[in-house]
Design brief:
binds zinc ion, mainly alpha, about 65% helix
Length: about 280
């Protein structure tokens, strides 16, 4: 096999793995907030209870072949399932292109963000295993890479600074900054609106972003998520889906994740562009 064929095989593997894991994440998103086991019972149609066979459970493809309906009773299956699977495939592939052999660590965080975002959309809550899990992943990878000599406590050594792995002091500093910044937003927001402006889950999630990507990523993610949230909020108000002042009904977690993804793939470029704007060169 030549080089090109090998790369295509790795690309296909990344996409397929992402779609397959996202298929499992769909189960996690549905069952975990309901306190159900994620392993048993096996997947079944919620209406007719007929088990879903392996060939009916191939990510994306099965949904299309079954035309979005249960094979037995024709109950419609939500389009969200293939969409989440496609999202997983695309993000895993993008992470492989961007992070190369370090992509598996990015895949873990991407999986946690997918679960957190959709559970937050459905239930307005962010599970601890997503937020605290992200913090542990960030600090642990940082310390591990430091231990094998990839960086000194503050600076990179051998790794190219791709804005994923930050040295331990940046990881801990990012965690502290992300947590305290959103804690303040939550505290003063709650004072201003006289009701809970933001959940503690969002505070923990931003702590995780800081632990993984450092303090600069926290600032960038905060700005990006606020911009994205405002755009979506305005569109929803224009569509009369939510009333003005009904912002609490829009969960903030998915916007933190979207901002974080922008950072993961375009972070260095964004910093450069911003500095050019500031310094005028
Ligand atoms: Zn059925």
């Amino acid at each position: 096999m030549d080089q090109k064929a090998i790369m295509i095989a790795f690309d296909a593997f990344s996409f397929g793995l992402g779609a397959t894991i996202a298929s499992f994440l769909n189960v996690v998103i549905w069952r975990v907030p309901r306190g159900e086991s994620i392993v048993s019972p096996p997947s079944h149609c919620p209406r007719c209870s007929s088990p879903i066979r392996w060939w009916q459970n191939v990510p994306i493809i099965s949904w299309i072949l079954l035309r979005g309906r249960c094979a037995n009773c024709k109950e419609p299956i939500s389009m969200r399932y293939p969409l989440v699977e496609t999202l997983g495939g695309v993000l895993f592939l993008a992470a492989f292109w961007h992070y190369g052999w370090l992509a598996p660590l990015a895949w873990i965080w991407i999986s946690l963000m997918i679960v957190g975002s959709f559970i937050d959309l459905d239930h307005q809550l962010l599970p601890d295993f997503v937020t605290v899990g992200g913090m542990i992943l960030g600090v642990a990878t940082s310390v591990a890479f430091w231990a094998v000599g990839e960086f000194t406590p503050w600076h990179f050594h051998n790794l190219t600074p791709n804005f994923f792995f930050v040295p331990p002091l940046q990881s801990l500093g990012g965690l502290a900054l992300g947590f305290s910044l959103l804690w303040c937003v939550r505290f003063f927001g709650t004072l201003a609106f006289k009701r809970e402006a933001m959940g503690m889950g969002d505070v923990f999630l931003m702590g995780a972003v800081g632990a993984l990507f450092g303090p600069v990523a926290v600032i960038a993610t905060l700005i990006l998520s606020a911009v994205l949230g405002s755009i979506v909020g305005i569109v929803l108000i224009l569509l009369a889906k939510v009333r003005l002042g009904g912002f609490a009904a829009i969960p903030y977690g998915p916007f933190i994740c979207a901002g974080c993804l922008v950072w993961m793939f375009w972070g260095p470029g964004l910093v450069q562009w911003h500095l050019q704007l500031l310094l005028g060169k």
